[in-house]
Backbone:
C-alpha cells in the first residue's frame, strides 16, 4: 500500500502561453531598440561634430563647412551645415540644431523622435 502524504507540492514555472507572450514582448522591444539605436548614435555624432566645428571656425560659413566635413566623415545624413543655427554673443559662438527622425515600425505605424542639441552650457 502506498501512502499519500498530507502536503502536496504545487508545480512551479511558466506555461507555454506565458512563455510565448514574454518572448513576443521581448521581441518587440528588441526590434524597437534595433531601429532606434542608429538614430541615437547619429544624434551623438552630430553633437560631437558641432563641438568640433565650433572650435575650427570663426565665421558662419567656416563653421558650416567644418560641420559638413565632419558630417561626411561621421556618416551624418539627418542635417547639414545649413540647418545649424549659429549665434554669436560677443566672442562666444553658440551652435544649435533641431530635427525630427521618423522611424517606420509596422505598416502605417511609425515612431517620431525630436532631436535637439546645442553647444551652450546648460
Residues:
Amino acid at each position: 500500500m502506498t501512502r499519500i502524504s498530507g502536503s502536496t507540492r504545487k508545480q512551479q514555472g511558466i506555461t507555454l502561453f506565458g512563455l510565448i507572450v514574454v518572448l513576443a514582448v521581448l521581441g518587440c522591444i528588441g526590434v524597437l531598440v534595433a531601429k532606434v539605436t542608429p538614430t541615437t548614435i547619429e544624434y551623438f555624432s552630430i553633437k560631437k561634430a558641432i563641438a568640433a566645428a565650433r572650435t575650427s571656425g570663426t565665421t558662419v560659413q567656416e563653421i558650416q563647412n567644418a560641420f559638413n566635413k565632419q558630417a561626411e566623415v561621421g556618416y551624418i545624413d539627418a542635417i547639414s551645415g545649413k540647418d545649424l543655427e549659429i549665434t554669436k554673443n560677443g566672442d562666444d559662438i553658440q551652435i544649435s540644431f533641431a530635427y525630427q527622425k521618423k522611424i517606420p515600425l509596422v505598416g502605417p505605424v511609425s515612431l517620431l523622435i525630436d532631436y535637439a542639441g546645442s553647444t551652450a552650457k546648460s
Notes: The two ends are 80 Å apart (CA to CA).
